[in-house]
Amino acid sequence: MNAAIEILMNGLFLGGLYALFGLGLSLIFGVMRIANIAHGELAIAGALALFTLSADWPVSPLLLMPLVCAGAFAFGWLLQAQLLNRVLSPDPMPALLVTFGLSVVMQNAMVGLYGANSRSIDLGAVKTANLTIAGQTIGWLPLGIFLLSLALFGGLHLVLRKTRLGRAVRATSDDAETVALFAIRRRRIFAVAMAVSAACAALAGMLLASRSSITPFSGAERLLIAFEVIVIGGLGSIWASYLGGIALALVHVAGFYFDPASGLLYGHLLLLVFLLIRPQGLAGKAVTR
Amino acid sequence: MTRALAVVIFAALAAAPALLDVGGLALLTEMLVLLAIAQSWNLLAGYGGLLSLGHHAFVAAGAYLLFAVTRDLPVSPYIMVPLAGAGAALLALALTPVLFRLREVYFAIGMWVAAEIVKIAVSRLDYFGASSGLPLYAARRIDTSWLPASAHWFALALAAGLCLGLWRLQQSPYGLHVHAMRDDETAARSLGVKTRRIKGTIFVLSAAGCGMAGAISFLGTLYVSPVAAFDINWTVNAIFICVIGGLGTIRGPVLGALLFVLLREGLAAYPGWSQIALGVIAVAVMLMAPRGLSGLLDRLLPNTRRAV
Fold it and tell me: Is the residue at A167 inside a domain?
């Protein structure tokens, strides 16, 4: 019984972080119909940038996270405006290959700069602090990350629903050709989407490195997790990604509990099950079109 | 002219075991294996328009099949090379019901996930030696002094066969169907092109090419392990070779494989840098010259035939 509660709770908390990995990917896929193969590398680069910054500045890494996110935002903007906007076409292959090349370059550069060792961000007392509710010990860090991801999803939801920019993003996602007729600059919307996506990825990477640890090679598995989150959740709304994140995390946590050597296996199998039985995901439009 | 050149190159490569030292021959064999994997990937992506990020699964499938079957049955490892290709083709066939529900980006990453599943399964099964892998038990039954030369000839036959096969495809009516499908699937289907069957066929053939290449490559090393066989760099390198050389052409990957090996050997003293250089070149090619080295060659030598 206790084990079940523990799995549920850990799955829920980890799910918030997974959802954050999925969010960035789902945003750009929704708006541009392309995927960023370097999504995982962006996340890891964010975490490694935080290492470098906190080595130089004697403040809590938590305070430096917004700075790294701002840097990732700028990087994402430049990536879209300078590289990816040049290969836009109905054929998704050029954009896919450009981001693929970028992911290989980033990974090797990170191995060269930081070495292959695994690292973890030291948040000091926050890392070990916990509280006890009804006999269950809950770490403040996983709980905090979960609440933060919830708040970010809520914030993004409001931006997409209530603001002019959000309307333009949703309209571009529905029909980019028609949007151009309304004097909305499609390429600018794409740059905004990629910038937000990169900032989300960097934040997710930093939070991951605070919760557990990363190596410069961790990017690939993060991309696969983000991809599984959006397929299992389904496209169409950002909350679908949230649901997908929690479902995937529950399967990973349960899999790890019963079969510690399984790694990401059961998450991958869950993806296959969804593709076969429910390709539109838990809550979304069909992805196969 | 082109044909005569191809015959001369083939003859020179076939004579390589007599001309080169051990290291040079190993490098040449590796280049041919890389070319074979790249042409297999090219068949699917350049000709069929389907980008896969999981072709290392087929390389590994071919290698493991060779090692496991020759351990249990008294077959020669050489006979197993083509059969390993057939085994990889069967794996591809088994994956189609799931993967062919996916398109574009989803197919690309879905294929990667499939490769991960096969990798985890193989590294947990004792039949395949689990995470430590398998030695080539059948090495006792063959004269290993001939192994480098025969692996080279196998690699040459496979790479040349794939190039020839792509050339035949370009000349045939079937090739036109494939081309039409890549350019506009819906329009092709409305004209009676059986796109689903074509996709399935080239997917399976592409897997077979990778499977044979994997069997040949690990035949030479006498040992197979999950880390080496399921190394995603098999796929990464194939993509770089095709993109830099020119997707959807035959000579493109040939030029790409040559550049790949030159870069890697030239930068051997700086680990990681050849991958960075290849990535930067590939991105630059996609942005500035999407037809790759093959397209540049067309511009330099306007008289050569476009078909090759």
Answer: yes
Residues 6 or more apart whose CB falls under 8 angstroms from that of A224 comprise: A40, A264, A268, B109, B112, B113, B116
Helix crossing, B104-124 with A265-277: angle to 10°?
A: 130
Any CB–CB contact under 8 A between A108 and chain B? yes
- Asked if B53 and A261 come within 8 Å (Cβ–Cβ), the reply is no
Query: How many angstroms separate the CA atoms of A39 and A80, rounded?
Result: 13
Taking the C-alpha atoms of residue A111 and residue A41, their distance in angstroms, rounded to an integer, is 11
Q: Do A228 and B105 touch (CB under 8 A)?
A: no
Distance, in Å, from the CA atom of B203 to the CA atom of A226, rounded to the nearest integer, reads 26
Per-residue pLDDT tens for B7-58? 888 888 888 787 888 888 889 999 999 999 999 999 999 888 889 999 999 9
- Measure in Å the smallest separation between the Cα of A136 and chain B Cα atoms: 34
Residue A282 covered by a domain:
no
Contact A201, A46 (CB under 8 A): yes
CA–CA separation, A113 and A85 (whole Å): 29
Q: Do B104 and A102 touch (CB under 8 A)?
A: no
Tell me how far apart the alpha carbons of residues B141 and B134 are, in angstroms, rounded to a whole number.
Answer: 16
A229 part of a folded domain: yes
Best mutation site among A79, A83, A93 for testing chain B: the one with the most B CBs within 10 Å? Answer: A93
Residue A231 at interface with chain B, using a CB cutoff of 8 Å: yes
Give whole-number Cα distances, A266 to A32, A55, A225, in Å.
30, 37, 12
Nearest CA in chain A to B290: A94
pTM: 0.89
H helical segments located in A58-185: 61-78, 93-114, 125-128, 140-162, 164-174, 176-181
Q: Which residues are paired to A136 by β-bridges?
A: A133
pLDDT tens for each residue of A218-258: 999 999 999 999 888 887 788 888 999 999 999 999 988 88
Cα A64 to Cα A246: distance, rounded to the nearest angstrom: 27
Residue A70 has which token pair? 């701002």
- Which residue range forms the structural domain that includes residue A231? 2-277
Residue B303, burial from CB neighbour count under 10 angstroms (0-12, 13-18, 19+): exposed
Domain count, chain A: 1
Question: A133 pairs with which residues across the strands?
Answer: A136
How does DSSP classify residue A218?
T
Neighbours of B160 (CB within 10 A): 19
| Cα B16 to Cα A161: distance, rounded to the nearest angstrom | 67
Compute the distance between CA of residue A230 and CA of residue A44 in angstroms, rounded to an integer: 19
Residue range A43-69, pLDDT digits in tens: 999 999 998 998 888 888 888 899 999
**Tokens for B267?**
């930068």
Smallest Cα distance from B105 to chain A, Å? 6
Q: How far apart are the first and last CA of chain B?
A: 12
Q: Whole-angstrom Cα distance, residue B2 to residue B128? A: 45
* Cα radius of gyration (chain A): 19
Establish if A90 belongs to a structural domain.
yes
The ipTM (two decimal places) reads 0.87
Locate the domains of chain B by residue range. 2-231
In 3D space, the residue among A156, A164, A175, A236 whose CA is nearest the CA of residue A32 turns out to be A175
Residue where the block lists tokens 């961000």: A121
Single out the residue of A89, A67, A91, A62 nearest to residue A199, CA to CA: A67
Distance between CA A246 and CA A98 in Å, rounded? 31
Cβ <8 Å between A108 and B275: yes
